[in-house]
Amino acid sequence: MSKYTQKENGGLYELTDAARAELVDSKYYNEDLAPTSLAQRTWTTYNIASLWIGMAICLPSYTLASGLMGAGLSLWQAVFNVALGNILVLIPMQLNSHAGTKYGIPYPVFARLAFGPKGAHLASLARAFVAACWCGIQIYFGGGALHVIIVQLIPAFGNVPGANWITFGIFWAANIYIGYAGDEAIKFMESWGAPILGVLCVALLFWATSMAAGVGVSVGQLVSVPSQPELLAKGGGFWPVFMVGLTGNIAFWATLALNIPDFSRYAKNQKAQFRGQLYGLPTTMAAFAFVGAYVTSATSFIYNIPGGIFDPVAVIAKIESPIAAILGAIGVILATLTTNIAANLVAPANGITNISPKRISYKMGVIITGIFAVAIMPWKIMESGFNFFGFLGNYGIMLGPLAAIYIADYYIVKKRNIDVMALFQGEKGRYWYTNGFNFKAIITWAVACILPFGGIFVPSLLFFNQNGYLFSFAIAFVLYVLLMKNETTSFISDEEEEVMTQR
Fold this sequence. Notes:
Blueprint: E1 6-9, E2 12-15, H1 17-23, H2 45-56, H3 59-62, H4 64-70, H5 75-103, H6 107-153, H7 163-181, H8 183-214, H9 219-223, H10 229-234, H11 238-252, H12 254-259, H13 261-264, H14 270-302, H15 312-318, H16 322-355, H17 362-375, H18 378-383, H19 388-413, H20 439-457, H21 462-466, H22 468-483, H23 494-500, E3 501-502
Parallel strand pairs: 1-3
Antiparallel strand pairs: 1-2
Helix pairs in contact: 2-8, 2-14, 2-16, 4-5, 4-14, 5-11, 5-14, 5-19, 6-7, 6-16, 6-17, 6-19, 7-16, 7-17, 8-14, 8-16, 15-16, 16-17, 19-20, 19-22, 20-22
């Protein structure tokens, strides 16, 4: 075999044909987890930005600012909180994107760099579990919106036994079909979905403005919702409320800050992924949060409901025009599809594939994720009093250390040099660590969670729990660097990188 295992062109690396041929028999390799070739990296700035626009416009993000208003912040304070939180989470996201674009590797393979081939299962499945849970919940919401559309078109459908089950099943199948089709289908859906969602958001703003004007309320009144000191006092004052909201907004995309290489590996270059995420994430989240806050404010006047209507599906149900209601429901369906497939289906599918690449393909991973999304019975979760969303919020505490470990490992320990072939070689590769596990990474992960999780049980530590993502991230970053200070077995020098790379 040639001494060259990877080729470099314009700062992007790909495996040589000889290296790929040698890895075919490795149990850690299959075509779904294989690094993308340079020819496969076709996503432009627009494609990356549209991916984020499609993901950011979803039911949960609609209520972020209006929820903070309910906690006492003014409309503009709430929108600023959302924007700031997403600018901050963009930092680890951009940092973790770099390796995906440079080397073409997906998230489960990237996780092997820090955790080892076997340890990566823990990290990738931790990300996959929370995504699969959200997948089921989003399908539940989307099925409900589809039910609204069909009933508007065919009123008798509302009396069909099991009508909600039928629409749930149809929407489930749509999610699985697009996810199963792969990256090009997702790219197509996001590219066309983004502008349509933008138009629908503008239409929703016009509807809210015109309806408010009909009851004598101006735009100035709608956007001038002040802060409410009595509500802020219940949360401990302005800064405690603001910081809890900020941490929540950071944790909102904590999952994608981990598996962003699943998408950045298709970017044409670093500039495309950097600009696409910069243009697509914080701007869309802030704009859509404003839409949610503005419409919620309008509904408080239009329907004389204190605090307004936070749920966009409930707003759609209030619209008297069937055509407008149908368009609104289509918007909910499209928003759910573009978010759910990219954010909640790709990651668990790749994580499941990584368990046994020779036996489980990405497409099989999609189907397994879809089955799990039904098995968790999202309709029961939403009906019960169990605070599932609180559980998912605390799950962010476990994800913060992972992002910190990846960043510290890639930039400080490995100095952005990766032996891509070794990531698939198992015990023969430099990233085998101890029996396939980097126990220093696992110890770091566990220790970083202790203080924030302690706030659940110890009242004096509540502050650390409420700001859990930030604290767990900071602890993990420092601790991992210290523990890996004298680790050299997985390190690749600039000189060795030159020997193994064809330019």
